[in-house]
């Protein structure tokens, strides 16, 4: 079976700057792979190249063995790649349940996509499932805009999952969260791997070490190292570049 995501020799430059330079790695199914690296290392650019927000100058992006390097973000989404970035997938003026139903509507075949949402049984069932799983059932009729920041981030992840993607790209899911919310989100992200493969960008090194199955270290646009968290952490090159000491 092919890897759910394969990145081969990916590169892009901005002016003279090689923001991502010849980066290759594979993502194993149902595991958590985390991209780390100092500010400006190229993590967000790499995510943009994978998700289709940017088109690479060189290299390949394969989803489930199919080359999709130059496909748009929408095409990649249809192929099962979903990206959560902060809370940008939410409609603040709709309720929690409505946000989920809209996303779950994508589960319907195109011929049924224009049915009134209340007649879409699959979307309704998925919505209920997500409300339970993400502990948002008691807030189902609240406007998304009125939720706490932590609940909004949780709803954002739920919305991404409601369309049953194969792979979920999470960009700093705990940024700006309280200690308690960070802990809850870590538990939640870990539980997601039952259904989906997770690719993360995360700065909180404690979280990276406890949550990741596999870590890819970026530095100045290049892949500096990759491996299990404890192996990567003790790598002298990573120590020097990322943790700032030798
Ligand atoms: N659209 C752009 N135009 C020009 N330069 C860019 C653009 N996007 C990113 N860069 C540059 O590319 C490099 C990599 O940036 P990127 O945002 O990918 O790093 P990062 O690892 O995500 O950093 P951070 O942790 O601070 O978010 C940086 O030097 C950045 O200034």
TrEMBL record:
<dbReference type="InterPro" id="IPR003593">
    <property type="entry name" value="AAA+_ATPase"/>
</dbReference>
<dbReference type="InterPro" id="IPR027417">
    <property type="entry name" value="P-loop_NTPase"/>
</dbReference>
<dbReference type="InterPro" id="IPR032823">
    <property type="entry name" value="BCA_ABC_TP_C"/>
</dbReference>
<keyword id="KW-0813">Transport</keyword>
<dbReference type="GO" id="GO:0016887">
    <property type="term" value="F:ATP hydrolysis activity"/>
</dbReference>
<dbReference type="Pfam" id="PF00005">
    <property type="entry name" value="ABC_tran"/>
</dbReference>
<dbReference type="Pfam" id="PF12399">
    <property type="entry name" value="BCA_ABC_TP_C"/>
</dbReference>
<dbReference type="InterPro" id="IPR003439">
    <property type="entry name" value="ABC_transporter-like_ATP-bd"/>
</dbReference>
<feature type="domain" description="ABC transporter">
    <location>
        <begin position="5"/>
        <end position="245"/>
    </location>
</feature>
<dbReference type="GO" id="GO:0005524">
    <property type="term" value="F:ATP binding"/>
</dbReference>
<comment type="function">
    <text>Involved in beta-(1--&gt;2)glucan export. Transmembrane domains (TMD) form a pore in the inner membrane and the ATP-binding domain (NBD) is responsible for energy generation.</text>
</comment>
<keyword id="KW-0067">ATP-binding</keyword>
<dbReference type="InterPro" id="IPR017871">
    <property type="entry name" value="ABC_transporter-like_CS"/>
</dbReference>
<comment type="similarity">
    <text>Belongs to the ABC transporter superfamily.</text>
</comment>
<protein>
    <submittedName>
        <fullName>ABC transporter ATP-binding protein</fullName>
    </submittedName>
</protein>
<keyword id="KW-0547">Nucleotide-binding</keyword>
<dbReference type="InterPro" id="IPR051120">
    <property type="entry name" value="ABC_AA/LPS_Transport"/>
</dbReference>
<dbReference type="GO" id="GO:0005886">
    <property type="term" value="C:plasma membrane"/>
</dbReference>
């Amino acid at each position: 079976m092919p890897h759910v995501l394969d990145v081969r020799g990916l590169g892009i430059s901005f002016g003279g700057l090689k923001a991502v330079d010849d980066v290759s790695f594979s993502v194993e199914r149902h595991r958590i792979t985390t991209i780390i690296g100092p500010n400006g290392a190229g993590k967000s650019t790499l995510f943009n190249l994978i998700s289709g927000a940017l088109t690479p100058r060189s290299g390949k992006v394969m989803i489930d063995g199919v080359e999709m390097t130059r496909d748009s973000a929408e095409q990649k989404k249809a192929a099962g790649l979903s990206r959560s970035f902060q809370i940008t997938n939410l409609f603040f003026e709709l309720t929690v349940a409505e946000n989920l139903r809209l996303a779950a509507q994508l589960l319907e075949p195109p011929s049924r996509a224009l049915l009134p949402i209340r007649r879409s049984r699959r979307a309704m069932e998925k919505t209920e499932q997500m409300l339970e799983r993400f502990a948002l059932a008691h807030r189902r009729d609240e406007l998304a805009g009125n939720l706490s920041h932590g609940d909004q981030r949780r709803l954002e992840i739920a919305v991404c999952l409601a369309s049953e993607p194969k792979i979920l790209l999470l960009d700093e899911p705990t940024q700006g969260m309280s200690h308690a919310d960070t802990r809850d989100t870590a538990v939640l992200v870990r539980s997601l791997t039952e259904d989906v493969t997770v690719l993360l960008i995360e700065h909180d090194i404690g979280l990276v070490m406890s949550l990741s199955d596999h870590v890819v270290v970026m530095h100045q646009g290049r892949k500096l190292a990759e491996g299990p968290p404890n192996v990567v952490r003790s790598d002298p090159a990573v120590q020097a570049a990322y943790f700032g000491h030798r």
